[in-house]
Design a protein that fits this description.
Number of domains: 1
Number of strands: 0
Radius of gyration: 19 Å
Largest sheet: none
Order of helices and strands: HHHHHHHHHHHHHH
Structural class: mainly alpha
Helix content: 55-70%
Strand content: under 5%
């Protein structure tokens, strides 16, 4: 793994605390005032949903503020990133909110087409084709991730989910994906729309610029990758606190907060492994995050049982990496 260059930026301790406070201040009030928390994810994608999505962008906005305060070069980098974070809220966000579909897979044609188009542009922005993009925490130009790592970031977690679905449904013998009509082209289009929507407005873009763009590289300067993963996992889980207290997460009440953290910790380990294997690629982090979110919008039968099995498979995968991957224990596992 390549080491950090002499031009790398160090995120001060004070800036880390500012980032964590800003994340909560930019997210929690908007979730509360939007009124979507009691819906538990069951409401239509309307104006209330759109207000809540601004809060979902909290980690990215906090990261851009902190990164921009570190140097003049990173200030310009944050200004280049800011429209990429905000534009999806306007286009296609307002089109989706105006149509107010009950499910992402039922999105009308115009917002669906615009969603796919904007998501394509965002992917290109974070791809190695954009040589001006700098790491928000390091100030170094992004490097080209291996093509195999990019493909794995989009397929590993869906593959684990499908395995969990097969294991959970084998007793009932009932397998159905409600959002897919069965016709190959129509089904492929729906999967593409759902993927694009989750990339833009499902948390991937809004979170990963913060979690893997600023917080993870800053933590890697202070501890091993495994330790950084565990700290980030706790922060990531606690960020969902208002959602889990109101809507629950497998269980209800305060126990939902603990359930979220228990689920997120192994996920954070997997994300860190991908981060290191991809040389700190934000594109890989965004694609990986999208791949895990997209499964919830496709209407899998036995979803609750599958989710529990999925969590066990992720935990087992993270445990294997934690035990056998030297990369996660190296004190010099920084990226260029």
């Amino acid at each position: 793994m390549a080491g950090c260059s002499s031009n790398d930026t160090q995120v001060p301790e004070r800036s880390l605390w500012i980032f964590l406070v800003l994340v909560c201040l930019l997210s929690w009030p908007l979730w509360v005032v939007s009124g979507v928390l009691p819906r538990a994810g069951a409401g239509v994608y309307d104006a209330h949903w759109l207000v809540a999505q601004i809060g979902v962008m909290g980690p990215a906005l906090a990261a851009l503020f902190v990164s921009g305060s570190l140097s003049r070069e990173l200030r310009w980098n944050s200004l280049r990133l800011l429209p990429v974070v905000l534009v999806p809220l306007v286009v296609p966000g307002t089109l989706v909110a105006r149509a107010a579909p009950p499910k992402v897979a039922m999105m009308p044609s115009l917002p669906a087409i615009v969603t796919v188009a904007v998501a394509t542009l965002v992917v290109l922005f974070f791809s190695p084709l954009n040589r001006r993009l700098l790491g928000p925490a390091t100030g170094t130009p992004q490097t080209r991730p291996a093509g195999g790592v990019v493909m794995l970031s989009m397929t590993l977690l869906p593959a684990l989910f499908l395995l969990a679905w097969a294991l959970a449904g084998v007793r009932k013998g009932h397998f159905e994906i409600g959002a897919l009509p069965g016709e190959p082209l129509s089904s492929a289009w729906i999967v593409l729309v759902v993927f694009a929507h989750n990339l833009l407005l499902g948390g991937s873009l809004g979170e990963e610029i913060g979690w893997r763009g600023v917080l993870l590289p800053a933590l890697l300067r202070r501890m091993s990758p495994l330790g950084a993963s565990l700290v980030l996992g706790v922060v990531w889980g606690l960020w969902h606190l208002p959602i889990d207290l109101v809507a629950g997460f497998g269980v209800t009440g305060p126990s939902a907060i603990l359930a979220r953290i228990v689920f997120v910790l192994p996920v954070a380990v997997l994300f860190t492994w991908f981060y290191l294997r991809s040389n700190g690629s934000l594109l890989v982090a965004i694609l990986l995050h999208t791949s895990i979110n997209v499964m919830g919008d496709l209407g899998f039968s036995g979803y609750e049982e599958t989710s529990m099995m999925f969590g066990l498979l992720i935990g087992a995968s993270a445990l294997v990496l934690a035990v056998f991957s030297p990369m996660l224990h190296s004190t010099s596992a920084q990226v260029a």
